[in-house]
Design a protein that fits this description.
The structure is a single chain. The protein is an alpha+beta fold. The mean pLDDT is about 95. It has a four-stranded mixed β-sheet with strand order 2-1-3-4, sandwiched between helices.
Length: about 90
């Protein structure tokens, strides 16, 4: 079931895994909101809370409240496919 509530991707500009995750979202036409944890202190605190003190990126928070941290392409594609994106 597709949910068009924007997904939030927390990352940094220099992170290659963040760039890769954004490419997967773009290829699957999945909407997302990009949040740079280096320029958004609240986002940085949230990422550390989710990841038990670590600033692991990308940290992706989905509309259903689920979270993927540093997912591989296959895991991300499956999650987006399950959410109704092709």
């Amino acid at each position: 079931m597709r949910n068009d509530t924007q997904i939030r991707i927390y990352g940094t500009k220099w992170c290659p895994d963040c760039a890769r995750a954004k490419q997967v979202f773009q290829k699957m036409n999945a909407p997302f909101r990009w949040i740079d944890i280096e320029t958004d202190q609240d986002a940085s605190v949230l990422v550390e809370k989710i990841n038990k003190g670590y600033k692991s990126v990308p940290t992706i928070v989905f509309a259903d409240g689920s979270v993927l941290v540093e997912p591989g392409n296959a895991e991300l594609v499956k999650k987006l496919s399950d959410a109704g994106y092709a």
